[in-house]
Amino acid sequence: MFGDLRLGTNDLLARDNVAEMVFNTMTKAVPVMYNATWNLYYTDSKNVLGGTSFNYLNSWAYQNYDLVYKNVIDDLGNMNTRWGIGKASSVDAKGNLDGTVTIAEYNKIIDEETAPILTYDSKKTDKASDIARDLRGYDAKSVDLYINGKVTAKQNLTDGTVIAAETGDGYVVKVYANDSGVVTSVSVVKEQLAKVVSVSSAKKEITLLTTAGNKAVKDTDSFYENLAGVVENGDYVLAVVDADGKVNDAYVGETVTGVVTRYTNKGEQTVGGTQYKVSACGFADTDLKAPTAYKNTTDECTLYLDSTDRIIAISNTKELSGEDVCFVAYTQDAGKWGNEYEAYVYLPDGTKGVYTVSSINNSTKSSDLDAFANARNNHGTGLYVYTLSSDGKSIALKNGGNGSLNASDFQIAKNTAGTGITIDHSQARYTVGDDEVYMNSATKFYVHNTNKAPTVNGTSAKDAITASTGLSSVKDNAVLLGTTQGDLTVVYRTVNGNKIAIAVYGKSANDVSAASDELLFITNGKWSKVDAGDEYYYGTAIFTGEDEAREITIKGQPVVGLHAYKTDSRGRYEMDEDFTCGYSGTLSAINKEILYVGADQLNKLNGSNVKIWDVTDEDKPTLTSVSFLDTSKTYFGYAVVDNTTDKNVLAVYICNEVTPVKDASGIAAGQLVNEPVGTVAIGSASDMNSASGTSDNAGDTVAIVVGVTTADSGKTTTATIKDASGRTVWEETWTMTISADKNVVWRVSLAGGNGSGSDTTHPYPWSWANTGWPNPGETAKAGVYSYTVKTSDRTIQSGDFVVETDVDPYSAS
């Protein structure tokens, strides 16, 4: 009844102890009889003097429930005990069930791995005698040997040599025996590190690169669920592959990531204070290094471990991107004894710093550092993969070799001598050297103003390069120079055959991008002219980072919103409308840390330097706090971030709470025209025609009510609609003839096509420059849009509206 339990007869019993004793009573005990004459117990009524003997066929479990057991082998060759309802006709010499047991599949209750009598997970080739000693007392003359699930001919294991030959560091050898002391089988599992080369959800198939070639794991395999939805191309898994190339198991193994601080000639590696020994398990991917070949104590690496925590292979090819590449603007002697240099570095998060160069291409030799700093007399200027020290004071640089700019996961394009590019906001594709690269809203730009070359002492180095994100953040028509090869360098990744620019490093004769702290917010459209003969006006603006609005003199009459600017020698401001500045759109605060502008997540909303401005009253901008943003409401406004990939908030300008736009459905004829100035309505063509008394050939339409006066008559008026990124999606110029002050309805088909009205003509559909059959131009997409209507001397009106869903491109004729 006690079985393997090590309990005293007076010990208290836990519930699982009781369960085990009940099970033992049912399966390991048999009824006995007592003879008073001989004062003995016996089990065989025909042989009283035979005493007691065990016979499973007499057990309570078998007699009452037909509960039987048998040995089965799993896919890896491991021994399992299968319990179920079945029949048995005989037992062995010790009363245990023998091979006569039958259990129908539908009567199986559980398969439980049998505890092996011996387990080896390290090399035992020269210790066969030890294994032979371990097997003493067992019958091991005829045993099934399974290697990775495939059975070989029966083996005599008595002298230990067969098992010793199959052991290895990281291999797992298990020896199984029955209750009668007979060794029944041995399983040997030799894992390997396999690479995922294909994941097909349609076929429900995952292909692994193994030492036997590419092998498929299918959903019919019992271990498919170990990988499905867990791994993707390029991942590594532990796989068990037999001699026929069949994968019998696969699962995600353990890894360790860090910098190796010590290694041995045997390949043992120490990471994070722990030493990892070497596995005998193999791998097929040549991008990985064997532990004995890895001797790098500078770079971060990944150790791939077997199930015994030994190293199979090592990778130090990081998944590099533009975020791993920095631009060194200048390097100079640090002014200390020996060849020690400091570099003026522009990091991919938009920050700048001066760092001591700790190594170049893993070398700390003075001669190599000296050659780096003075190479080609460019003072180390160029692109490098970098690693900052933990204290942020030094930097390790690499520009060649494994894990650097030659890594296969991204490439470099360089201009040929004498060729540069001109930025065009309407164009995404550019020729750089022999490559066609695409730049987009995620591309980082680092542009060196050649008129601000770093001096020997580095006093102007911090101002030499501007960093910004997105093609539209670089001034339209800006020229990135290319006097010599490499003046213009693009880090790109190939996606579906297209070369997508991650980072652009260039030179220009001017500043061509606006930094976050070079933005101001125009609080209203009320401008007073400085004097009759000048184009300058007087108005109110808020500069990023400042606590108070201030009055400025500015050229022209810019509309409410964020603007980049420049100043002249007299301190007068001029807007630089070629820049797209900050974020604009619907604002929604998730909490005090995260702000969404449309679909873009901005962070650190509650930072110590964040300025939250309430500009709902254009005449009285108020510096408030993050608590102003009610998380249950949505607002329209603008946000400035710190030009880093983290998108940390610097300033927020809240213009108004967003309410649903007016639906024109069911509005009586003429009613829309009489709506107050600033009304925006969106509806179908028929709704809008009925509401405004005008006509439009097809499609959903936006109507904007604008107030004009007789003073505007005869002036050239331009109406413009822009999307949230600042791109113009519709524009019309019209010379108005107005006989009386009135409200004019500006109407635009969101699906393209032409329209006309009594007071306005609409010759252009939405994004008219992209028209083409059968798609009538680029139709409106869901999002926030801004509009302005202005003459040569004043902004008549500006505002915002929301298109809630994409417009069907085929709804217009």
Largest sheet: 7 strands, mixed
Would you identify the regions where 5 or more consecutive residues have pLDDT less than 50?
401-409, 455-462, 660-671, 753-765, 767-776
Oligomeric form of this entry? single chain
Principal-axis shape equals elongated
- Estimated structural class: mainly beta
Mean pLDDT: 80
Describe this structure in words.
The structure is a single chain. The chain has 813 residues and is mainly beta. Strands 27, 29, 30, 31, 32, 34 and 35 form a 7-stranded mixed beta sheet that branches. The chain has a 7-stranded mixed beta sheet with strand order 44-43-42-47-48-45-46, with no helix packed on it. β58 (783-790) and β59 (795-803) form a beta hairpin.
Question: What labels would you give this structure?
Answer:
mainly beta; 6% helix; 6 helices; 7-stranded mixed β-sheet; 813 residues; elongated
Fold topology:
Elements: H1 15-28, E1 33-35, E2 40-42, H2 60-65, E3 67-73, E4 79-87, E5 102-113, E6 118-120, H3 128-134, E7 144-147, E8 150-151, H4 161-166, E9 172-177, E10 183-189, E11 192-200, E12 205-210, E13 213-218, E14 236-241, E15 247-251, E16 255-263, E17 269-271, E18 274-276, E19 282-283, E20 300-305, E21 311-315, E22 325-333, E23 341-346, E24 352-360, H5 366-374, E25 382-388, E26 394-398, E27 411-414, E28 421-422, E29 429-432, E30 435-438, E31 444-449, E32 465-469, E33 479-480, E34 489-495, E35 498-508, E36 519-522, E37 528-529, E38 536-543, E39 550-555, E40 561-567, E41 573-575, E42 583-589, E43 595-597, E44 600-602, E45 611-614, E46 622-624, E47 635-641, E48 649-657, E49 662-663, E50 680-683, H6 685-692, E51 695-696, E52 701-708, E53 716-722, E54 728-735, E55 742-749, E56 755-756, E57 761-762, E58 783-790, E59 795-803
Parallel strand pairs: 7-10, 11-19, 24-26, 30-35, 31-35, 39-41, 45-48, 49-50
Antiparallel strand pairs: 1-2, 3-4, 4-5, 6-9, 7-8, 9-10, 11-12, 11-14, 12-13, 14-15, 16-17, 16-20, 17-18, 20-21, 22-23, 22-25, 23-24, 25-26, 27-34, 28-33, 29-30, 31-32, 34-35, 36-38, 36-40, 37-38, 38-39, 40-41, 42-43, 42-47, 43-44, 45-46, 47-48, 50-52, 51-56, 52-55, 53-54, 53-58, 56-57, 58-59
